[in-house]
Amino acid sequence: MHAKRLLVAISLVVAVLWAGSLSSLHIAGKLSFLDRIEASLTDLRSTMLGARQPRPIVSIIAIDDRTAEAEGYPLSRVKLAELVDAIGKMKPKVIALDLLLVDPGPEEGDAALVAALTETPSVIAAAGIFSKSTQMVTSDAGDPLAGIPVADKILLPLARFSDVAAVGVVNVSTDDAGTPRYVPLISRASDRVYPSFSLLAASLSVGVNPAFEPGELALGERHLPTDGGQRLPLTFYGPRGTIATFSAADVFDGKLSSDAVTGKVVVIGSTVTGGGDVFPTPFDPILPGVEVMSTAINHLIVGDNMVRDRNTRATDGVIALALPISLILLLAWRRSAPGYAAIAAIVVLWVGINLLAFDYGYWFSAALPIAATLPPLLLFGALELWFDRRRAIHFAAQSELLQRIEAPGMGEWLARDPSFLSKPVRQEASVVFVDLSGFTALSEAIGVTDVRELLSGFFELVDEVARSHRGAITSFMGDGAMILFGLPRPSADDAARAAACAIMLCERLRQWLSAHPTLSGRKSGFKVGAHCGPVVASRLGTGDRQQITATGDTVNVASRLMEVAAANRAELAASNAIVEAAGGSAVVFRSGRLQDPISASIRGRTEEIDVWLWSGHPL
Length: 619
Known about the structure:
There is one protein chain. This protein is of the alpha+beta class. It is built from 19 helices and 25 strands. 40% of the residues are buried.
């Protein structure tokens, strides 16, 4: 009971420290390694909830493939002026050009565009240039502009255009997959601050100037929470075309109804195939950039953007602390169907609340509680298994029945050094695996008593051969055994003794199987694998029952070599490493029939190895 309480206390302390650290980083907006997971879970929530219909306050006039085919691409300044002028005559609230007008064109076209922009409240695009994908920012809770990265350069439109229209930055913040997640409402250069394209279009539409406070944007009576760095969380209504989109070709042809424009924010942008200004979203892998800008404008005017600010992040932190603590306490309370049902109910409740909040416009993190919960919960489970006395007793009973460690000299060595292998040791060793073939089918056919006698005889034979070559049986499980050469310490002849042991096992097992009365007339066989190399040796168990074991790639390869032997109808598959280590005078070269080495694939490894195949009968 004391161990159980200690286990729970340790797990809870770890949970609080781990979740608290993650939460503090999350609230500060510095938990970038979880952003990819959060992005995927955000997309999942969006698709589960489905597309929404936005309020019809924004229309897109697309310079699309039809327009490019009829008028050329990019549009000349004269044609662009005609487009702006035609739309302006339909009395929109604002015309927003999602186009960079940074280079001069023919004077006639530039002058015409200036005149057209003068007639209607207009916004034209600028773009920030950043030398790095991640920017350093300042942190000041009382500064509404804290956390805004500084651009190396702002690409501004020509002065003659910016003199008659407002200028807004079109940059968006994307995740690693390129999906827009935020619209920076403010961008900074070294000399001044620039509002975003979307913010200017929205503020001109509602007729008020924006005002910023820490974590908040005010548009008149409307107060919109913002995330760190005055960023507007961005979610999408649906696939392309969800926001009403019309071809600029219809404007040129006089076919566009004034209802599509009058009293609305009109965003003009390119959707030409191959134009490059597209983004992946949960609903559409190639959403045009002009629709991304239009989505942000709609959010700002309507106020239906997701709420993800310092308060929601603080709530995330509380959930990230409460969830692992609750699950650990429930798991400690009862490992049974009611306990697991309670755990499942809490997880389902959290998922449901998180999804419902998302549907109502509150973006609570899904990745943070998962990351905060899994490591402490796994630690608790691991420690509980470690301290579980019933499992320890069961393991000891199975070990006593199925395993023995009796290498010559091992007892004397342990007497001299009781701490031998109490900590794992990496060393060179040779490993031999032996296994009976077809044992499962055989055990079903001969009955329990005969199976027990057969296994007893098999173990006695393997034990005798292993002892005679100074090998240690470190694992004996039913119809197979693992023999280790190199304990209590490595010797120069480990590989030679292992090779000799493998050959003698084949000789003895062939004779034993053919002469055993129980196996008369039944299909039976065996396979042996041998390899050498570095292993990690350690001692498991407590009290007077202890077991030495070895792990590592060498052990895995030796075990898999039995499959190579069986696949090639050989009795023994020995790696080239152990054959070379055994030396040219080893018994493996002087008995039986040795086939030239083959290149064999080893399950679980990408590279093939050279393997020698041996049999006491022709291959």
